[in-house]
Amino acid sequence: MVFLLRTLKNILKAATEGPVRLFYPEVCQICLDSTALPLQGFVCEACQRGIMPVQAPFCHRCGLPFEGEIHQAFQCPNCHDVRLFFVSSRSACVANTLMLDMLHRYKYANARWLEPLFERLMGAALFNDRFIDTWDVVLPVPLYSVRQRERGYNQSAFLAQSMAARLKLPCPEGVLKRVAHTPSQTMLSRKERAVNMAKAFEVVDVETISNRRVLLIDDVFTTGATVNECARVCMCAGAQSVHVWTLARGLGVMGT
Ligand SMILES: [Zn+2]
Ligand SMILES: [Zn+2]
């Protein structure tokens, strides 16, 4: 009887520690070989060494990393070509194969077990930003409502809420809304993405961002079309400034 009670207690404990434990043993979900704990996002130390942090030098505007010795602030050629509505964009990690695989699982396969890892990576990088003390409100890039219902969660909202908690800033829901369903952008050029994004977002709650300095959070920066359009509508709605942070940064040439 005592044994049964103890077993039941252990099952309940496992359930309350997060459903992930019931489905995933403490094994790395990338190599399926080494031990990896829930706090590591079920990614072992060896696999985590494949995550590449974004390191200087990078464009001071869009955060695109460059090779070589550049010590002064510079703006990349891509940023000269296009009207940007954010002051700066920074990312924690390079969107390499490993990171894109993890993000894909997180977005499309409900891999919520990655959240502790994502939170740690983004938090560590974001707290090195020189603009850290200058934001008033944190907003996630919203998903289209149908897509969010299908998926059950918005990956950017999780990142925004955890960063807001660390920064002790508000992260109100429903300020920005995605009003148009945008077809997949994967195969589109930078120009096509910008056209695709036009009128995709709307500020629903103008008062919350009026005259405020916004920190906008998304999971990945590819050409910047999404975050730039969000920044544009925020600025049109009276925001004082918009800074962007994303977990991952694509390194592709933005004009292609
Ligand atoms: Zn591993
Ligand atoms: Zn740039």
Q: What are the main properties of this structure?
A:
binds zinc ion; alpha/beta; 2 domains; Rossmann fold
Structure explained in plain terms:
The chain is of the alpha/beta class. It folds into two domains: 1-49, no CATH class; 53-249, 3-Layer(aba) Sandwich (Rossmann fold), CATH 3.40.50. The chain is built from eleven helices and six strands. The protein has helices at 2-16, 20-23, 45-48, 77-81, 97-108, 115-126, 145-151, 155-167, 190-197, 206-209, 225-236; strands at 88-94, 137-140, 176-178, 201-203, 213-221, 241-249. Helix 6 (115-126) packs across helix 8. It starts with a helix and ends in a 7-residue tail after the last strand. The structure holds zinc ion (2 copies). One zinc ion binds next to helix 4.
Order of helices and strands: HHHHEHHEHHEHEHEHE
Report the bound ligands by name, code or SMILES.
zinc ion
- Compute the number of strand runs: 6
Strand content: 5-15%
Q: Specify the structural class.
A: alpha/beta
Question: Which regions have little confidence, pLDDT < 50, spanning 5+ residues?
Answer: 12-19
Task: Write down the Rg.
Answer: 20 Å
Basic shape: globular
Main beta-sheet strand count, sense and barrel state: 4 strands, parallel
